[in-house]
Amino acid sequence: MCQIAGITRDAYYKWVRRKPSKYENEQVELLSSILELEEEHKLWTLGYLGMTTQLAFENKLNFKVGLKRVTNCMRKHGIRANIRKKKHNRVKRHEEYINDNLLDGQFDRQRPNEVWVTDTTEVLYGVDKLKKARVHIVLDLYGRYALSYNISVTETAISAIEVFRRAFKIEPDAHPMIHTDRGAAYRSIDFNDYLASRNCIHSMSHPGHPWENSPMERWWNDFKLIWLAKRARPKTLKELEESVKESIEYFNTQRAYTSKNGLTAEKFRVQTA
After folding, report:
1. Would residue 105 count as lying in a domain?
2. Nearest to residue 13, comparing CAs of 23, 27, 26, 1?
3. Is 209 strand, coil or helix?
């Protein structure tokens, strides 16, 4: 047999007696946990992203695993994700990271950090030649409080993750549900990997349904009509960033809303403390 395989007898027995590597042991533990969760949740089959989130939520493992590693393990062992087939011939890689609208319009929350919503919008700056930038915001639905912002040239997974990194610096112990639309950045492996690492469930609006993230749409409306429209267009990216920073300060700490019992977002948010 060794001659057929093209190896020496000593090499064969050394391979037989070798100890499994740390990675191999982790893979065995990962597969065992996946099979256990599949059995527990047999009434609703967990997909790749759902499995990654559930593993983190139930603290099944003593090591961190990302979406890619879970996906590869499930595929290798024939554990199929519960992915709805689309009428369109979409790329299957993207379908794996599309979630349902788990928030389902339940925008009124009882305490901070239950649900965070996010979105990005295009803003212009410059003098002679106009330039475009993307402004990202993370909004806590409790009090509609803007936790963080980020400005990028384009909408990418990196920029979407960065705005959440900033939000978690403010609320490091939070594990909110995250609600987004189905933009490419929010469907990406990297973004969903990051949410899973923070033990967050990802909810997504349906395509062409902006009202399913209406609090974020309302915030953008105020930002553009109340703030940007009444000020000179920023000349530089630095001026744009200063304007965004000031707008968040204004809407969080100065503008009172009837919907918040006549309080600002900040005072409404801290009243539970």
Report:
1. no
2. 1
3. coil
Boundary-marking domain end, from 34, 60, 82: 82
Query: Is residue 65 domain-shared with residue 130, that is, in the same domain?
Result: no
The number of distinct structural domains making up the chain is: 2
Residue at 214 is within a domain: yes
Looking at the structure, do residues 137 and 14 belong to the same domain, yes or no?
Answer: no
Burial letters for 6-33: b for 16+ Cβ neighbours within 10 Å, e otherwise?
Answer: eeeeeeeeeeeeeeeeeeeebbeebeeb
Instruction: Write out the residue range of the structural domain in which residue 70 sits.
Output: 2-82
Render pLDDT for 98-145 as a digit per residue (tens, 0 to 9): 778 889 899 999 899 999 999 999 999 999 899 999 999 999 999 999
> Distance (Å, rounded) from C-alpha 218 to C-alpha 211?
10
Last residue of a domain, one of 37, 57, 82: 82
> pTM (2 decimals)?
0.68
* pLDDT tens readout for residues 145-185: 999 999 999 999 999 999 999 999 999 999 999 999 999 99
Can you give the CATH number for the domain in which 198 is found? Answer: 3.30.420.10
Tokens encoding 182:
């189905």
The answer to whether residue 87 is domain-embedded is: no
DSSP assignment of 120-180 equals EEEEEE-SSS-EEEEEEEEEETTTTEEEEEEEESS--HHHHHHHHHHHHHHSTT---EEEE
**Cβ-based neighbour number of residue 261 at 10 Å:** 11
Contact of 117 with 141, CB cutoff 8 Å: yes
Nearest to 213 by CA among 124, 110, 138: 138
189 C-beta neighbours (distance < 10 Å), count = 18
Domain membership flag for residue 110: no
> Looking at this protein, which amino acid is placed at residue 33?
S
Which 8-state DSSP code applies to residue 227? I
